[in-house]
């Protein structure tokens, strides 16, 4: 790892979604980086879990996407307001009148870190690799709007039939299955970034397993990365061959995985870290710290129950109701998290999307609720026991091994065992990557998962619970729900109001039947150095963008 600098903390908050908790701080939005020339341009950031994968086709977690968003670049990037702006594209996409064809020109000066030019063929290869069933990408579904993507993923068509072609070295033609209003936002997401075919083939099954086994085209180069799920230190180094390198001021971003909040806090106070996440008591104790920042996120934390086995007790709707009514969500966010998170009222978070006609928040139109009521919880528990023919029930709750996850698991275990007589919850805390692997393979009974919005549309959350979604890990099934999602994605794709109503009704079904049990809408409490300027933190997608960041005395 590189030398650790001693910079203390804060953020220029860009965009209305970001809330500063301290009112007395000077928050002038300075963008002049001339003062940065004499200052060491190094920042040290702490994550609470490992990066799951450095492979664009295989990445699924936020830490991977943050890293990939800075080491690679796609056709578009998100600006401070989550609006897509051109990046690897040389000009705005030309879109056909029917909304089905996108023609995009690439920057001819863009290079890979191995010296190759970034070409249209790199995008074709990357997208085809992701939808190829042999790749087994859990994010292949993100490419579903592209013509034939779904048929390729299910093995019906060859990957060469995907609706993307290289017209020439620096021009792409993309054909969609149906008009997709948020398609430009998708192009800013790492799953849609290019990959260098020559490099992928050179390293084979070792591709992207270390930072040396890949090529990068973004503002930074991934370095010091030794492997997915295990490495707890890696870095981003400025890419001298990036087409816009002159605008990149940071030389290095060092990442450390620190799962214990107290350890992270001590490192920050001693000047060894510049950006840390606080939770629980430490978050509550530091509300008045001059560097304290609450960073809202379009993220829902939820419980997923494995309903795949025919004898799964979680197929019982009364059991799911009993568990949900046992959750005091207000107590969770106030007494356990203390970091600005909000009690969940449904699966789709607030401040994500708004009614195309009235501009009302999606959660207002859905008007769903998730109540805490011990008496109702016990009533549903008695009904569930009678229907299941049991007096007692025991199951495993799988969570990550971070501080916050452990505390949440302790709360869930305690409240369920106290409220529902005869219920036993066995908690298993595992590394983040292990939780992901076990979730994806269906090796769980109940698991605590979260979803961070990839783009600002309710469908990004709601489509997770469709019958055929790879993220419907618990295998909840509801035909009416699936039909509504299908209508929103197809026949009503060009009718904003009808599509909105489809999604509202789907949310109501999901919430009433509790296909998953939402707990809270996440926020992060940070201590962040006031010397860090220009950082954009998105509420959706690959949240951190370090391209415009610089350090100032």
UniProtKB/TrEMBL annotation:
Localization of this protein: Cell envelope
Family: Belongs to the bacterial solute-binding protein 5 family.
Keyword Nucleus among record annotations: no
Signal peptide: 1-21
Keywords of the record: Signal, Transport
Origin species: Enterococcus entomosocium
Domain spans labelled Solute-binding protein family: 91-469
PANTHER family (alphabetical): PERIPLASMIC BINDING COMPONENT OF ABC TRANSPORTER, PERIPLASMIC OLIGOPEPTIDE-BINDING PROTEIN-RELATED
Protein name: Peptide ABC transporter substrate-binding protein
Chief location category: other
InterPro entries, sorted: Peptide/Ni-bd (IPR030678), SBP_5 (IPR039424), SBP_5_dom (IPR000914)
